[in-house]
Each structure stands twice: as C-alpha cells, then as structure tokens.
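Exercise: predict the fold of this chain.
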Amino acid sequence: MAAETAAETTASGKAIVGVVREHAEGERRVAMTPETCRKLVAAGVRVQIERGAGLRSAFTDEAYAQAGAELADTADAVLAGVDVLLCVQPPADDAIARMREGATLVGLLAPQADPARAEALQSRGIVAFPLERLPRTTRAQAMDVLSSQAGMAGYKAALIAAQLAPRFFPMLTTAAGTIRPSKVLVIGAGVAGLQAIATARRLGAQVEGFDVRPETREQIESLGGKFLDLGVSAAGEGGYARQLTDEERAEQQRRLGEHLKNVDVIVCTAAVPGRPAPKIVSTAMVSGMKPGSVVVDLAAETGGNCEATRPGETVDVDGVAVAGPLDLASSGAVHASEMYARNLYNFASLFLQDGVLAFDWDDELLAKTVWPERQP
C-alpha cells in the first residue's frame, strides 16, 4: 500500500505538531523537550506548545521559543489546529473532542482500558498511536517508551526502599562495630527490575534478583546481583513471562516464603502486559518477614505484586512497611521527559516526511501500533 499523505491538512503545507499541559494528577513529565522541539523544526514541521507545558519538568517557555516553537496561551488554541498531538497520559475525553477531526495522537493512550476514551477517539476519527502497543523489536528500541520510563521507575523504587528501610544498605565498619549490608531482593528482571538491582548495588546492598524467566540470570549477575533460583520457570514469548500453572505457583510461593524470612527489602517489578500484575508476595509472606523490613511494590498501578499493597499508600503489616508508589517515572521528570520525548520524536519520524504527514502502513511499527490495528 502506498504511503498516505496528509499535507493538505495545513494551510502552509507543513504539518503542525503540538503539546499541551498534562492534567493527570501528579504527572510532571512533558512529551516534548526543547531538544526534540528543535529537531522537529529542523525536520520541516511547525511546533505549537501551550505555555507552561514544560514547567513541571524544568523546561521553560523561553527555551521552547528559542528552539523554534510557537507558544499558545491556551490548550484549545493547540488542540484545534495541530495535525499531531504528542502526550504522556491520554488527554481527557473533552480535550479529545476539541481536537481537529482526523488528527494524529501519540502517547500512552490505553484506549482499551476506557470505553469512553475509545469512543471519543473513534468519533473524531483520531489516528491513535498508543505507544504501549509498539512491537518489541530491535528497530523499535529507540521508540520504546515502556523501557525508558521503567528505567526511571526502577531507579526511584530502589531509592524509596533505602529511605524507608531503618538500616544502612552498605556494610560499614565503625567504632561501634561492623554493620552488615542489607539484603535486597528484586522481583522481576525487566528494565525496571534491572535498574533497581543496579541502583541497590550502587548503594552497597547485598542484592538478589528473582524472575521466572531463566534467561534473565545472566543479566542479573552482570549487574552484580545473585540470581535467586526457586526451580520454577515461566519463559514465554517476546521476552515476557507466561502465566504460571496452579501447581507451579504453589511451589514458587512455598519456596519464596521461606526465603523472604531472611530478606530486609523487597522491590517488586513483575508485570504481564495487558493484565493485572501477578500476585507473587502474599500477606502471609510479608507477616513472616523480620520486623523493620520493607516492600516497595512498583506494580501498584496494575494491582501490585504484593497482596498487602495499597496503591498510593505505605502501610504497616506486622512491622513491615509496604509501599505502593504511583507514577514513579514522573518523579524523575527531567530525565524521564528527555527519554520519553526522544522516543516520541523517533516514532514520529516514521510518518513525518519532509515536513508533512505520510503514513506508510506497510511499516510494521506503524501498522502494529496504530489503534485500531491495521494490517500491512
């Protein structure tokens, strides 16, 4: 199929790419930085950005203006005219309704999670690219927002664990005697888990990594962690874990529960795309840990890996602190935004050709990411 060109959507022939302020509670990231703004302008497109859109990420309006952006006083001024809207969290339904019909929307959109949002997108004929649907291929690595944001989340999770723990992470030799290093177990060895392992190691802790995919052993050990082998494998397709059988899960739970009695800190990061987070750490396991132990559940947003997790709260379970932080990537807004914006720029470059929109639906990355999916 030949590429579909949409140059006629702007009076000047140049595509207009826009960004408005993020309005999700607690969201500090922005989908475009002055760096990527400059690159888009150099690529021949116009850039419009709502004033103040980057302030929570420490990017000023002046920096965007110097990069070539046109500053708009209101979100409506951007929504009504742009051909491509870049975002972090999905816009509110009423904001989608104010977008130009047939415009393109790129970000973490999760349309299947909200029927009203899906209806709003379809009713306006929005060409939606939920980047969580991006194929996990070598070519797509530079566009992989899930990986870039998971790295920041894993880093922050380890820092939260160190802050909550009533003990040092590293081994110390002092006049008052020797302090043993904390024992940290990171559950899940995806991008977030590996970053958590690396960060906890830098803080001096004794670190183990657990994942039901045996191929992660080498990655964990390369970061200085010890691979915790519980004798249960759930290797699946595409680098993700498969669902465990009831028998496998019971054996995993038994062995893990015994091991946790000697662990000081758990950082949970396990996730299965499109499903609630797997429950790995039971409340009984938490109760069996030493008083003063800590659990930081990075999977809190999708239900948590720990049964005792309460999203957005830190609770006490028999002397063990269980934290369920939300939107951790946003807490590192400067670098998280820089990585996210580069991901979006790289993806947008697939359909922004010579300053105009040109969708090549033979391109797997476009065809598999667009919602609803189009076959090449």
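Check your answer against the key: The chain has two domains: 4-143+333-369, 151-330.
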